[in-house]
Amino acid sequence: MINFFVLNQDLISFLFLLTGVAFTGMLIYVGVISIFEREYRAVRVSLILSMLILVVFLAIYLIDFPLKEVAEISILVFISLSLLILFIPFDSKRKHSYQIPTEKHDERNIMFSRNELKEGTEQYNNYYTSYPNHKDLDDKFRQKPGLLSPNASLYHPFAFASAHANLEVIERLKTQVNGPVKEKRTEVEASEITNYLKTWSKKLGAHSFGVTKLQNYHLYSHKGRGDLYGKPVENKQNYAIAITVEMDHEIMQTAPKSTVIMESTQQYLNSGTVAVQLASFIRELGYEARAHIDGNYEVICPLVARDAGLGEIGRMGLLMTPKLGPRVRIAVITTDIPLQIEKRKNHSSVIDFCEICKKCADICPSRSIPFEKRRAEIEGVLRWKINSESCFTYWCTVGTDCGRCMAVCPYAHSNNTMHNFIRWGIHNSYIFRRFALLMDDLFYGRKPKSRKLPSWIDN
Ligand code: SF4
Ligand code: SF4
Asked: Which of 91, 94, 296, 381 has the smallest CB count inside 10 Å?
């Protein structure tokens, strides 16, 4: 009996030591991954925590003191219960409702359209007669140097020239968004062609692909850019395909510096190229297809992508994808080829996480992101609405499209096993979300600093 008790004591002590070593190893693993991600604060935190845990566990294991077994058992029970609470799938009863806009959005109201208005023209006068309350707000950004201006505060000759080069290619791509449909139609089966398009888009560089029925509220009411300014949008196609492409994690960490606009224009170009290729392929099969790419949209891409199951609209008003958060660019293809629509996944954990996180709102240099809860009165939809005017005025001051909010978002970490495990926990558990946010603040900081430009750009 005495032998049995002694044996069990040894087993408990061994389990206790093993737990300490496991936690230490896990934290060292986090530290190593963080070295590759160049997240040096996370490296320091994981090393300090791993050493602390190792010392505490070793001390308890090695030193004899009264009630040592009770202490070891209590710690093991506490850890087991904590892990159970954190990892058992558990969500709050409050499911966040799926929001359908009741009004169409006019593209003439977006900041890019307003930025293109030239003083003294008919379009300019008509716009500010219709929206006199926008005039003072827009005069503010017009007083700034402007996007990609050499006078902007974050001007960099190479990065800005690269962004100009990307935009120049996109300009040429815009002529290819539509085209003649081949007369002889190839009969296709919906699931087969959807799978083909999905697989091919991934080979072309897309990160995610989804299909939805094209809804009226996906379409702008009127065109706001280019030669068709003011023309009502009439797109009668049945389906919309949304694709996303990844924005480089390391470059986004330099936000709001010049490299960010270089990267965003690059990914507008990449997503646009994939969309133009897919649309051209569909027309080749004898079906209507139009690509919607940067500066040439008839649809609101984040809404289409959300309905195609690629994510949810978060606090910063962008599409939040499960694997990359907002760190994506979207392009859309509208078409009448028969397609298969997958059942929409539930992403309401994103809304719940955005409600508690507010990291983007904290970091935003122009204070454009709301801290409050979603509001129902905005265009008939319960959502967060950023202050587009103050955000765009900041862009026109620094000359880049900022992206600070995107860079610090806890969903935007690299797409690797460690972060995907945390994303899985965030998706599954209401309690894990709160824990993950605390850890994100501890490991990466509540307001992480912007990284230096890479040496190949700025040496
Ligand atoms: S930073 Fe936080 S609040 Fe902002 S979009 Fe990302 S998860 Fe939501
Ligand atoms: S892009 Fe920059 S200025 Fe605009 S909302 Fe995000 S952080 Fe704020």
From this structure: 94
The phi and psi torsions of 378 (rounded to 5 degrees) equal -85, 110
The two structure tokens encoding residue 219:
């379409």
Domain ranges of the chain: 2-87, 108-444
Is the Cβ–Cβ distance between 238 and 213 less than 8 Å? yes
Confirm or reject: Cβ of 350 under 6 Å from ligand 1: no
pTM equals: 0.92
Residue 380 has pLDDT above 90, yes or no: no
In the reported structure, the alpha carbon of residue 178 is separated from the centroid of ligand 2 by a whole-number distance in angstroms of 33
pLDDT at 327: 97
Which letter does DSSP use for residue 372 in this model?
S
The answer for residues whose C-beta is within 8 angstroms of residue 368's C-beta and 6 or more apart is 386, 387, 388, 390, 391, 394
Is 436 close to ligand 1, i.e. is its CB under 6 Å away? no
Q: Indicate if the pLDDT at residue 7 is higher than 90.
A: no
Q: Closest by alpha carbon to 254, among 457, 7, 36?
A: 457
How would DSSP label each residue in 126-191?
HHHHH-GGGHHHHHHHHTS--TT-TTSTT--HHHHHHHHHHHHHHHHHGGGSS-PPPSSPPP--HH
The ligand 2 site (C-beta within 6 Å) comprises: 316, 364-366, 368-369, 386, 391, 394, 402-405
pLDDT single digits (tens) 391-418? 999 999 999 999 999 999 999 999 899 9
In sequence order, which residues have a C-beta less than 8 Å from that of residue 87 and are 6 or more positions away?
Answer: 425, 428, 429, 432
Q: Closest Cα to residue 236, out of 336, 158, 136, 95?
A: 336
Q: Give dist(CA 454, CA 403) in Å, integer.
A: 17
Query: Got the DSSP string for 230-253?
Result: TPBP----SEEEEEEEEPPHHHHT
Q: Determine the distance separating the centroid of ligand 2 and the alpha carbon of 387, expressed in angstroms.
A: 9
Which residue minimizes the CA distance to atom 4 of ligand 1?
Answer: 360
Strand partners, 296: 293
- Pick the range with the lowest mean pLDDT from 41-50, 255-264, 337-346: 337-346
pLDDT digits (tens, 9 = 90+) for 169-198: 999 999 999 999 999 999 999 999 999 999
For residues 197 and 212, give the distance between their C-alpha atoms in angstroms, rounded to a whole number.
Answer: 14
What pLDDT score does 341 carry? 96
Tell whether the torsion through CA atoms of 40, 41, 42 and 43 is positive or negative. Answer: positive
Maximum Cα–Cα distance across the chain: 98
